Amino acid sequence: MTADLAEAKDLSCIEAQLTEREDIDVLINNAGSGALGPISKGTADGLENLIEINILALTRLTHAALPGFRSSAIN
């Protein structure tokens, strides 16, 4: 699955796909971003984007995959 996890519609699409499946036993989230330099040189919007990708998307996708994790653990 490929998506821009900073975009709400893309994140929702991936969440829905993960929630619908019960055969997921591993989630590899290869999304992530960083910033070089002092925080004072960045913008508030840039920081928000980092948080959306590195924290919010990771947390939401992990939560969406939980039913599959639980199903795999039982079997």
TrEMBL record:
Q: What is this protein called?
A: SDR family NAD(P)-dependent oxidoreductase
Q: Which SUPFAM superfamilies match?
A: NAD(P)-binding Rossmann-fold domains
**In the record, what lineage is assigned to the organism producing the protein?**
Bacteria, Pseudomonadati, Pseudomonadota, Alphaproteobacteria, Hyphomicrobiales
In terms of InterPro entries, this protein maps to: NAD(P)-bd_dom_sf, SDR_fam
Pfam families, A to Z:
adh_short
